[in-house]
Every structure is written in C-alpha cells, then in structure tokens.
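Lecture 7, part 2: worked example. A protein chain together with glutamic acid.
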Amino acid sequence: MKNIYSTPFYANIIKNLEIAGMVNDTKNATIQRLKFPKRCIVVSIPVRMDSGEIKIFDGYRVQHSQTLGPFKGGIRFHKGVNLAEVVSLASLMTLKNSLLGLPLGGAKGGVAVEPKNLSRGELERLTRGFTSAIGPFIGPDKDIPAPDVGTDSQTMAWMLDTYSTESGFSQTGIVTGKPLAIGGSKGREAATGLGVVLNIQKVLEKQNKSAEESSLAIQGFGKVGMHAAIEAHKIGLKVVAISDISTALYDANGLNIPELVGFVKKKNLLKDYDSAKQINNDELLTLPVDILAPCALDGVINSDNMDKIKAKIIVEGANGPTTSKASSYLFKEKKVIIIPDILANGGGVIVSYFEWVQDIVWLFWSEEEVKSKLKMIIDRCFDRVWDCAKKHSVDIRTAAIATALKRLEKAMLLRGQI
Ligand code: GLU
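Predicted complex, written out as structure tokens:
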C-alpha cells in the first residue's frame, strides 16, 4: 500500500493539500483523513477476445470520500492506469465536488487497457465485465460513475445496461454522461470544454481583456479539448494550436476549428490535415500564446519545460497537468495565473450532477437551462476562489483547495469524523 502514496502525482496532491491547509488553518486531522481513500476496489476482468483467447485486465474503483454525498467520478480506460493513479484522481474528485458546492463525494475508476487496440465487441465485453465486478459497490445513491479519458457515452450505456440487467430493473441514475435517449442530459457532452471556456472568460474579465485580442493553444482534441476549441471559437478567441496523439497543428492567425471538428469526426488523425503547420506536442506547450489549456493527461507541465512556458494564463482542462513544482515556479517566477483542474474542468461533473438530478425526478431540462445553471455555478466558484487568492496572497490552486477544504472540514466536524 505504501508505494501507492509515494508516486509523484500523489505526492503533488498531498503537497498542495498541505500548502492549502495553511490558508484557513485547516485542522491536521482533516488533512490526514483526506490523504487516504475510504475504499479501494481492485478487480480482474476476464474478457474473451475475438481470437477466442481469454485475456485478463486489471480494473479499479477508488472511493475516496463520501462526506458530502454519494461517491462520484469518472472511469478511465488507458494503458497507464494503475491503483496509485486512480487514488490520486479520486482525491481530486473529492476536492472538485466540494469546491463546486455539489452534494457529492469523490471517486474514480479505471481499467489498464489501450481501448484503440480492442474491437467494439471486445470493448463492450470488457466494460460489462468491469461493471459486474464493481457492481456490488456502486449504485445510483452509492457511487455514480461517468466518462473520463478513453471512455464515452457508449461506455456509460453498456454500464447502465449491465447494472440494470443484474439488478432486475432499469437504473438510469447509475451513471452520468450517458446518451440522451437513455436518460442523459442535454449539454453533458460539451460541458467540460464549455466550463474551460467559461473559466477563460472569467480570467479575461478580471484582467480587462477581450476574447478577440487573445490567443489560445489547446493540448488535446478529444472530449474536453475539442469542445473547448468549439466554445472558444464561438466567442471569438483565436485558437492557434490544437493536438492529438499523432501531432499538433499551429497557425498564428487562428485555426479553422469548424473544419477541423468535421475532419476529426470522420475518424481522421490531425497528422493527415494539411492546411496548417505541424509541430510536436512539446512545442505546443511552449508557444507564445496568451492562454494555454492542457486538456489531455497529467504531468505535462513539469520541471523539464516550466522555464520555457510563455503563456501568461494556464487553464487546466485535464486533471493534474501541472506538477506542484512547476505550479509554484510559474506563479512565483513568471506571474502565470493557473486556473486549477478542480475549477477549470469542473463543468463535466457539474452537468453530471444535473443529469443525476434529472434522472431522480424524471423531469428533463432544456439545453439553455443546463448551460445557464452551469455558468451560474462556475462564475460563483470562480469569484469565491479569486477573492480568496487575493485576500491571502496565494495562487489560485491554493485558494481553490483551501475553499474545498473549508467545506469538507465543516461537514466532517458535523458528522463527527474528525
Ligand atoms: N471525469 C470527469 C472529471 O474528472 C467527470 C466526472 C463525473 O462527471 O462524475 O471531472
């Protein structure tokens, strides 16, 4: 168990917790409790491959905290998934849900697999096997999974079907981020990307800058990055760079985002798009842009490239893209404003929460309603965190975690947990 807590990713989170704890005099007992997840579920999933052979995959669900409500967090399918990573991501969900004021705890799950190497049938059998294996521990009022890296609304549809079949009746509230036709919410697909852009608008507003005069580079063009690009383009922000696993594209005058969305939706890779200059993913991070939005994986802004970063604003669409060392270097030495993951990518879980509520009452909202409520929550949280950062002269991440800790500590005290 010990080596789970000694990974660089988790060490970063613990360090950030300890620093933020000092802002509001958080009790040591609160920090100590949050360093450990409530429950770690480790499963093996046998899957019959198309070749007839049976392959065993490792799967995890980490339930970090249920102080504020049922466990909530995504399921990641990625070759690098391991227990330590899922523990780290689950703890971020606890902080995120607390910061956003949602009545939800924090969890995360994952399977160590490269989904692109599996056929659709193999992927479906893997998803169903994983759902059965974690089935006794999840439920619409216990623990509600959602999509994350490498999973999507189809994955959620298979999870919903497996869970419902095994429990004997339809359980739409078991997952969020599912297709509209089976109880999904309008606006969920675009929610994380839209949230990233709502955060960008708030920073620009605080600095009296307009979207039209600002440039943005986005790492990743998947569920988060693509929708961030679409929403940024809509408000007149110049999206000068995007990337996927194959390459990064750059055009100082702004990329043609609608055309690129159509191109990628036809299952094309960006390396096959020939109307923009190709650069590599590392170069994208160090471009001379106003805003950088890392929307892919963790640890991409680190001690190796922190001194080369030129953006003055970083908005973390991914979970944990900036290491603790790079965060404090960029804040202290370069005065970079980093809008941290738990605020910047909160749009996803906010609309997941809306979806869960709609499933409970069987009454569905319009897209406008979803979007305006999402904006209301993000704007309110942003202002609260911004004011906290100014009041205590700390960076935005520290202020965001401090705000999340305050709400958690109050609930923990009331429940007699500390
Ligand atoms: N996977 C997303 C996140 O990291 C969404 C989680 C959810 O909707 O439960 O925030």
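The first strand starts at residue 39 and ends at 48. Residues 72-74, 146, 148, 176-177, 319, 345, 348-349, 352 surround glutamic acid (CB under 6 Å). Keep this in mind for problem set question 3.
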